[in-house]
Amino acid sequence: MTMIDEALTMLADCGPEFGSGLSNHGPMGAEALCALGRTEAVEDWVLRYRKRLGERPPRVEPIRAESWREALGDVRRVSDWEGFLVTEMEAAPWPAVLETWVPRLAPGMMAGATHGLIRTAHAVRSLAAGDTPERRAEFVTGLAYWAARYQLLPGVPGPAAPKLPSEAIAGVPIMPGRMRAPRPTSIFQAVAELDAFPPFAEAINLAAPGDDISAFLSDLTATMAWRYLENVGPASISYVHTVTAPAALRLLAPHLSAETARLAARYAWQACAAIHSRAHYPRPVTMPEQLPAVDDLIDRAVFSGDEHAIKFTEACLREHALTPNPIYLAGPLDMCGRYGRRAANA
């Protein structure tokens, strides 16, 4: 049994959320550590992390093929969704299940502060590398969480000429501070306030991918990594998801049709724009005088022990390998020193 399978086994009895709607990052963090080449750190990290997690919730009632839409967005039904999707997996190969469900779930990409998408993507990467029962179960759990936390944002995709996020970000309507609740308990509750901010509905059509989905995602992650540095402080965790979510979609894209990937990319942009609209409190950005080497940055992430720092670092380094940009190093450097146990030399 490989390290990721061992980690998934250790976390198999844990629910998808804990506390006041916080997402279980255990499987995602473990898989990211494996992707970073630090498998030796996985077991201890999982043992520490799982102490905060609760048990899987009980089932409520079976979800039926003819009425699954009625259960979308009902987090109480997350175990029902798992049961339903197990049946889907028994009837078709996992790539076919993915291609079926991504278009259905993409409009609700904000699900669990985008963790439905992200957890599914980490599962897909490990499943594509090796088909095991543990990885298939995690794939089902990721999709089930996406469905159970499904959350629509204002606005639907209409006709739009290709336009990069870096060209569109300045046009995203920013929610006035007076309209924002002072202490939202979660990212998905914060962006739900956009339902009362009509200008945001236009955001989804401000950017759209052309034929090159990869270039669109690279531009989106770089654009949002810069916004992370603009908003360090209380909003920093929110902005982490504007990088990890589109980076997660990149992991799904090779297993999706071009049409589905384009649709998902538009909703990924919308989710990032929503977080930006709701959380944006910009400050001047000062780039570090010296950026760390990749191995040093990985060491800092592992030492921090923080699930967001680990996932953010892995996503940024993956994006940096495709399209080198110092912003992908500066963001994780800040994050690793800001959260967790803190790197000693940060």
Q: Tell me the domain tally.
A: 3
Protein structure class? mainly alpha
Strand order of the largest sheet: 1-2
Q: What's the story with the biggest beta sheet?
A: 2 strands, antiparallel
The run of helices and strands is: HEEHHHHHHHHHHHHHH
Strand content: under 5%
Radius of gyration: 19 Å
Q: Into which percent range does the helicity of residues fall?
A: 40-55%
Question: TL;DR of this structure?
Answer:
The chain has 346 residues and is mainly α. The chain has helices spanning 3-10, 26-35, 42-49, 78-91, 94-105, 115-129, 133-148, 165-168, 187-192, 213-230, 236-252, 258-279, 294-304, 307-322, 327-338, and strands at 17-18, 22-23.
How would you describe this protein?
This protein has about 350 residues and is mostly helical. The protein folds into three domains: about 5-150, no CATH class; about 165-280, no CATH class; about 295-340, no CATH class. The protein is built from 15 helices and two strands. The chain has helices at about 5-10, 25-35, 40-50, 80-90, 95-105, 115-130, 135-150, 165-170, 185-190, 215-230, 235-250, 260-280, 295-305, 305-320, 325-340, and strands at about 15-20, 20-25. The chain has a two-stranded antiparallel sheet. Helix 2 (about 25-35) packs across helix 6, helix 4 (about 80-90) packs across helix 7 and helix 10 packs parallel to helix 12. The longest helix has 22 residues, at about 260-280. The radius of gyration is 19 Å and the shape is globular. The two termini are about 35 Å apart. Mean pLDDT is about 95; it is low at about 340-345.
